[in-house]
Amino acid sequence: MLLGSCAEKICTEMTITRQAQDEYAIQSYTRAREASKALEWEIVGVIKQSRKGEVVYQKDQEVERFAPEQFARLRPLFAKNGSITTANSSKIADGACALLLMSE
Q1: Which of 13, 71, 79, 103 is the most interior residue, by most CB within 10 Å?
Q2: Cα distance between residue 54 and residue 95, in whole Å
Q3: CA neighbours within 13 Å on the CB side: how many for 38?
Q4: With contact defined as beta carbons under 8 Å apart, do 5 and 79 qualify?
Q5: DSSP 52
Q6: Strand 46-50 vs strand 53-57: parallel, antiparallel, or unpaired?
Q7: In the chain, count of helices (H) and strands (E)?
Q8: CA–CA distance from 48 to each of 6, 36, 52, 75 (Å)?
Q9: Whole-number average pLDDT of the chain
Q10: Quick one: the chain helix, strand, coil %, rounded to 5?
């Protein structure tokens, strides 16, 4: 069973509404955007080599694309009358970081 289909099943069984999922996702995106701004001085870019040259990823692109006004317009992904959308579900490439700890 696809993860999204499983999520639809659980939401139906637990009566978790689309509105509740969208509200939670909006709150999560808002917190992530605020944290990114507050910790901007700690973020180090990642350089990706491509045929076109170097690309530097300095910010979380997903958080930058956040548009809460579009949530209600999105269609369900896994069931005709479902509640899981591209806005309120996990992304394929969801989260990455690196941490380096050192002592003197």
Answers
A1: 71
A2: 22
A3: 6
A4: yes
A5: T
A6: antiparallel
A7: 3, 2
A8: 34, 21, 10, 33
A9: 88
A10: 45, 10, 45
Q: How large a percentage of the chain has pLDDT more than 70? A: 95
Instruction: Please state, in angstroms and rounded to a whole number, the distance separating the CA atoms of residues 29 and 66.
Output: 7
| CB distance 83 to 76 below 8 Å | yes
Supply 95's token pair. 């989260």
Q: Does position 92 have pLDDT exceeding 80, yes or no? A: no
Closest of 91, 78, 90 to residue 2, by C-alpha: 78
Confidence of residue 40 (pLDDT cuts 50, 70, 90): confident
- pTM, two decimal places: 0.77
Q: What residue type is assigned to position 37 of the chain? A: K
Domain range summary for the chain, segments of one domain joined by +: 3-73
Cα gap 53→33, rounded to integer Å: 28
